[in-house]
C-alpha cells in the first residue's frame, strides 16, 4: 500500500474539472457521520482509517468522501502516494474556487447595515489576499507532493491550512458571519489530510 505509483501515471485533476460542489458534498457527507458502505474502493477505507481514525482535524468519513470524489481513488493499485496527490489536487481546486467566490462577493457588495457590510468587506479582502497566496503556491506544492519531497510538501500544505483558518477566524474576531465557512473548513481538512497521507508514503 505504501509503494508509490509512478508520478507519470497520475493525471492531476485541474481546478476547472473539479467542482467546488463535490468538495462541499464531501464535507456534508462527513458531517453526517454516515456509515461507510461496502462500495468504497478496497484500498481507500483502510488508508482513511489509518490517517483519520485518530486525527484531530478530520475523520474517516471526510477522508473517504473527499478522496472518493476523484476517480483515481478507485484504482485497485492506489497507494498513500496516490491519495496524497489527490488530496493536494482537491485542495488546489477548492482554493481556486473559493478565491473566485470571494472575488464575486466583493463585486456584489455588502449585506446588512453599513457597519456590518464594511466589516464583511474588510474580512473578504483579507481572505482574498490569503487565498491568493494559497493559489499561487499550489503548483509548487502539488509538484512537491508528486515528487515525495515530504518536508517541502508538508510545509506548503501547512501554510495553506493556516491561511484558510486565518480567513475563517477573522470573521469571528470581527463578529461578522462568514460566507465561506464551508469552503474554509473543506480546505483546512484537505490540507491536513494530504499532510497525514504523506507520512505513510
- Give, in order, the helices and strands: HHHHHHH
- Low-pLDDT regions: 1-18
Label the overall shape: elongated
Fourth-level CATH superfamily: Invertase/pectin methylesterase inhibitor family protein
Q: What profile does the largest beta sheet have?
A: none
Alpha-beta classification: mainly alpha
User: What is the number of E strands?
Assistant: 0
Report the top-level CATH class.
Mainly Alpha
Termini, distance in Å?
Answer: 9 Å
- What's the pLDDT, averaged over the residues? 84
Cα-atom radius of gyration: 17 Å
Binned, the helix content reads 55-70%
CATH-defined topology: Butyryl-CoA Dehydrogenase, subunit A, domain 3
Proportion of strand residues: under 5%
Number of helices: 7
Number of domains: 1
Question: What is the CATH architecture annotation?
Answer: Up-down Bundle
Structural notes for this entry:
- By secondary structure, the chain is mostly helical.
- It has one domain: Butyryl-CoA Dehydrogenase, subunit A, domain 3 (Up-down Bundle), CATH 1.20.140.40.
- It is built from seven helices and no strands.
- The protein has helices at 20-32, 44-52, 60-68, 80-108, 114-146, 150-173, 181-198.
- Helix 2 (44-52) packs across helix 3, helix 4 (80-108) runs antiparallel to helix 5 (114-146) and helix 6 runs antiparallel to helix 7.
- The radius of gyration is 17 Å and the shape is elongated.
- The relative contact order is 0.17.
- Residues 1-18 have low confidence and may be disordered.
- This is Pectinesterase inhibitor domain-containing protein.
- Residues 1-34 form the signal peptide.
- Belongs to the PMEI family.
- InterPro entries: Invertase/methylesterase_inhib (IPR035513), Pectinesterase_inhib_dom (IPR006501).
Amino acid at each position: 500500500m505504501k509503494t508509490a505509483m509512478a508520478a507519470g501515471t497520475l493525471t492531476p485533476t485541474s481546478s476547472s474539472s473539479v467542482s467546488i460542489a463535490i468538495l462541499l458534498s464531501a464535507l456534508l457527507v462527513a458531517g453526517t457521520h454516515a456509515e461507510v458502505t461496502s462500495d468504497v474502493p478496497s484500498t481507500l477505507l483502510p488508508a482513511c482509517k489509518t490517517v483519520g481514525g485518530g486525527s484531530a482535524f478530520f475523520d474517516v468519513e471526510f477522508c473517504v468522501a473527499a478522496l472518493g470524489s476523484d476517480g483515481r481513488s478507485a484504482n485497485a493499485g492506489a497507494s498513500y502516494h496516490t491519495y496524497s496527490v489527490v488530496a493536494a489536487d482537491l485542495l488546489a481546486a477548492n482554493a481556486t474556487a473559493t478565491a473566485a467566490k470571494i472575488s464575486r462577493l466583493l463585486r456584489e457588495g455588502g449585506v446588512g447595515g453599513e457597519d456590518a457590510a464594511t466589516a464583511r468587506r474588510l474580512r473578504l479582502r483579507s481572505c482574498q489576499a490569503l487565498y491568493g497566496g494559497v493559489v499561487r503556491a499550489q503548483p509548487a506544492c502539488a509538484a512537491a507532493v508528486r515528487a515525495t519531497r515530504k518536508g517541502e510538501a508538508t510545509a506548503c500544505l501547512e501554510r495553506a491550512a493556516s491561511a484558510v483558518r486565518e480567513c475563517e477566524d477573522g470573521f469571528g474576531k470581527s463578529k461578522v458571519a462568514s460566507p465561506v465557512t464551508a469552503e474554509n473548513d473543506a480546505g483546512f481538512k484537505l490540507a491536513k489530510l494530504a499532510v497525514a497521507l504523506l507520512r505513510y508514503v
